[in-house]
Structure to design on (259 residues):
C-alpha cells in the first residue's frame, strides 16, 4: 500500500519508517494514525525485518497531534481520536521487533508520546522534547501521563507536563528520556548501526527479552521473573540457542537462523 504521509524503506533486515508530512511538522491527524497502524501491521508481518527505525521528515520528528483537526472536537470525537492514537502506539510498543526512534527534531505532545512507545530513543542534538498540552487547555492524550512517568520518574514527568516546557536533547538524555544524543548529521547512521547490531543477534532471544522487559515493567517482580524463566527456557527449544553456544565454544561467529 502506498502512503500519503509515510515513507517505508527497507535496508537489509532494517526498516526505516519516516513520518512524511513536513508542512505540518509531521503532526498526527487521523489519516496519519491510520496509515501508521497499517504500516506497523505490514512491518510486523514481514519476517525479513528485524529492527524498525521511526523518524520524521524535515525539522520535526512529530510536533504533536494535529491541532487543526482537534480544535472543534467534542468529548466523543476526542475520545475516539485518543483511542486511535493509544491503540497504534500500544501496537508499536508491543511489536515483536525492536523499534528505535531517531528523533531528528521537535518531539512534542503526540510526538513525544510516539517516541516513548519505541524501545530506544536516539536524539539529534537539534531534538526538542515536551508535552505542551496544558498550554492548549488539554491533558496529554496518547499516554504521555503514563509513559513519561514510567520513563523518567513521577516528579520529572509532573514538572514537564504541568509546565508544558520543552527540553533539549541533552536534558532529555540526562533524565533518561533519550538514550543518546548525537550530531544531527550522524543521527541516521547511529540509529542504523544500532539497528544492525541488534539485527545481528538471535532474533527470538531479542523478541523474548523485549517481552520479558515490557511485561515485567507492567507487573510485580515475581510475575516478571516467572515470565523471564518461561521465555528463557523456551530459548532452549530453538536452533539459535544451539548455534549461539556451539559457535562460542568453536570460537567462531554464530550464524543465526532466527528459528
Ligand atoms: N498540529 C497542526 N499543525 C501544526 C502542529 C500541530 N501539532 N505543529 C505545527 N504545525 C504547523 C503550523 O501550524 C505551521 O503551519 P502553517 O505553515 O500552515 O502555518 C507549520 O506546522 C510550521 O509550524 P510553525 O510555523 O509553528 O513552526 P515554528 O518552527 O515556528 O515552531 C513549533 C515549531 C514550536 C513546534 C510549533 O509549531 C508548535 O508549537 N507546534 C505545536 C506543538 C504542540 O503544541 N504540540 C502538541 C499538540 S497536542 C497533542 O499532541 C496531544 C496528543 C494527544 C491527543 C489526543 C486527542 C484526543
Amino acid at each position: 500500500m502506498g502512503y500519503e504521509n509515510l515513507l517505508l524503506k527497507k535496508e537489509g533486515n532494517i526498516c526505516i519508517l519516516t513520518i512524511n508530512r513536513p508542512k505540518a511538522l509531521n503532526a498526527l491527524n487521523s489519516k496519519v494514525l491510520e496509515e501508521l497502524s497499517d504500516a506497523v501491521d505490514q512491518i510486523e508481518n514481514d519476517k525479513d525485518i528485524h529492527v524498525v527505525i521511526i523518524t520524521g521528515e524535515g525539522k520535526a520528528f512529530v510536533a504533536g497531534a494535529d491541532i487543526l483537526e482537534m480544535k472543534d472536537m467534542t468529548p466523543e470525537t476526542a475520545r475516539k481520536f485518543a483511542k486511535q492514537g493509544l491503540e497504534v502506539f500500544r501496537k508499536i510498543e508491543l511489536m515483536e521487533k525492536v523499534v528505535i526512534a531517531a528523533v531528528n527534531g521537535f518531539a512534542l505532545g503526540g510526538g513525544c508520546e510516539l517516541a516513548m512507545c519505541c524501545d530506544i530513543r536516539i536524539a539529534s542534538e537539534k531534538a526538542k522534547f515536551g508535552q505542551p498540552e496544558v498550554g492548549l487547555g488539554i491533558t496529554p492524550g496518547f499516554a504521555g501521563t503514563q509513559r513519561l512517568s514510567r520513563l523518567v520518574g513521577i516528579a520529572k514527568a509532573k514538572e514537564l507536563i504541568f509546565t508544558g516546557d520543552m527540553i533539549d536533547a541533552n536534558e532529555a538524555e540526562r533524565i533518561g528520556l533519550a538514550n543518546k544524543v548525537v550530531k544531527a548529521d550522524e543521527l541516521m547512521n547511529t540509529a542504523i548501526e544500532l539497528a544492525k547490531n541488534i539485527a545481528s543477534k538471535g532474533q527470538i532471544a531479542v523478541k523474548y527479552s523485549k517481552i520479558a522487559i515490557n511485561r515485567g515493567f507492567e507487573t510485580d517482580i515475581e510475575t516478571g521473573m516467572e515470565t523471564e524463566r518461561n521465555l528463557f527456557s523456551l530459548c532452549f527449544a530453538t536452533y539459535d540457542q544451539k548455534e549461539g553456544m556451539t559457535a562460542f565454544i568453536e570460537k567462531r561467529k554464530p550464524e543465526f537462523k532466527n528459528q
